[in-house]
Structure formats: structure tokens, C-alpha cells
Amino acid sequence: MLIVISPAKTLDFESPAVSDIYSDASFLKESRLLIKELRNLKVDDIANLMGISANLAQLNFERFHMWSTPFTKENSKQALLAFKGDVYTGINASTFSDGDFIQSQSNLRILSGLYGVLKPMDLIQAYRLEMGKKIKTSRGENLYQFWGDSITKSINKSLKASNHKHLINLASNEYFKSIDKKKVQAEIITPVFKDLKNGEYKIISFFAKKARGLMTRFIIQNKITDPEDLKAFDLDGYMYNSMLSKEREPVFTRDH
After folding, report:
1. Are 71 and 125 in contact (CB under 8 A)?
2. Is 131 within a domain?
3. How many domains is the chain partitioned into structurally?
């Protein structure tokens, strides 16, 4: 099975990488084109487009202007180790073995506004560019139009290369929208994580994001290929809930 997840806004380029394994991103030509266009934005433009503070806008203005290829281990870091949001807290890749990293190269992809699709060990440089932001480019009104069907084709190529029969959607809606579901050459399964609150099970964003990371780790470390085996997921107190689950939407609940 092939897993897709979202990137994170929080980054860590300070701590040393725990693995020497690395690979090159597939869409750097497109990334260069985007960077060229993003460099036309002033700090205020970035703040308004991304809905961020002047300080954060200044930081990302500088990132766009410092971004340069070729990527090396000196000026870049592997994506799975550079992202530091809630999903990545769940994955906890700093504790992976080399075998886990190699396994993840086959069955994990990270969707990205700047890089399109990343393998976990693809080198990246610091950026912030959320897929859902309406940033005009030479290819359209937003990043979905910029990437077109490139992301879907890349996902299908990865599915075929490793003979994956299932696409496990652990990405946010914002990022999964970059994939044309009708064209995916695999069965799409979307695990859902709910916590008990005020007497009923609800999706609580912070917990659900971490759980998506935990599920990603569970699949990679257990080398799971059969969706039925997802039901054994029991990390952090979550358990498969057959009553709430649908055929392609297994639900995992947790009572506090």
C-alpha cells in the first residue's frame, strides 16, 4: 500500500539528520519555476496571501530568495526529517532504523505545494507554501492548477512501481484535493480518528493529525500490505471501531 500525507508548516533544519540515506525530488524543475514566480512577491504580498504575520512573511521572503539548487546534504535535509508538525510527531522518524527509512521510500509520499510529491528521503530546502492558498502562477489561479495532473500521475507511477493495490489517504483535505481520485489506479482507503468528547466521538484536529502520523509509522514498521491488517492499529489508545467504520473508511476511536 502507498500512503500519502501532508507536509508541515513547522520545520527543523537545525538538528543533524539521523540518516545518511537521501534522494532527489522528482519535480525540482517545477519547483524552480514556482520559486522564480514567488520571488516577485513583496513581503506584504506574502503576508496577505498566506495570512501570516509580517515576521513570518519576511522569513519566507528570505527563504524564497535563498532557495537554490543543486540540493546537497550541506544545504538541504530529508523531507521526513525536516517537517516537524503534529503528523510528524506521530511518525517520530528520528527513531527509525535504516530499514524503516528504506521501507518508507517505497510506500510513503508527502504532498507539497512547492515540491509536488516528495519521497520521504528527498532533500528539500526550507519553505512555506500551502497547497490551498490562491497563489497566481503562469499556469493558473492557484497551485492546484499549477500542478494539474502531475501529482496524480506521480502517485500512479509509484503505485505501479511497487505493485501497490491500495492508496492510504492520511493527508488533509487541502492536500488530497491535489490528487484526481477518479484517476487513481488503486483502491483509496481513508482512515478516520475520533476522540470521545461530551459523550460522542468527534474528530479533534490536533489528535487526529498525530494519529495519522502514528498510523503511517504503524504501516511502515509492520510492512502492512493488506487493508484488513490496519484494524490491528492500537497505538496511543486508539482502537478499530466496527460500528462507525465504512468499507473504505475505517474509523478508530479513543476513550479518554
Report:
1. yes
2. no
3. 2
Residue 38 cell numbers, joined: 514567488
Q: Is residue 129 part of a domain?
A: no
> What does the pLDDT look like over 18-75, one tens digit per residue?
999 999 999 999 999 999 999 999 999 999 999 999 999 999 999 999 999 999 999 9
Nearest 5°: the CA angle 81, 35, 107 is 35
Same domain, 107 and 184: yes
Q: Across-strand partners of 166?
A: 187
Exposure string for 168-180, b = 16+ CB within 10 A, e = fewer: bbbbbeebbebbe
Nine-digit cell at 36?
522564480
Query: Which residue's entry shows cell 543543486?
Result: 70
Q: In which domain, by residue range, is 60 found?
A: 27-70
Q: Which of 81, 69, 8, 67 is nearest to 38 (CA)?
A: 67
**Same-domain status, 188 and 212:** yes
Helical (H) or strand (E) element with 28: helix 28-38
Measure the N-to-C terminal CA separation of the chain; round to a whole number of Å.
Answer: 31
Residue 211 lies in a domain: yes
Q: Please check whether residue 130 lies inside any domain of the structure.
A: no
Q: Is 15 exposed, middle or buried (0-12, 13-18, 19+ CB in 10 A)?
A: exposed
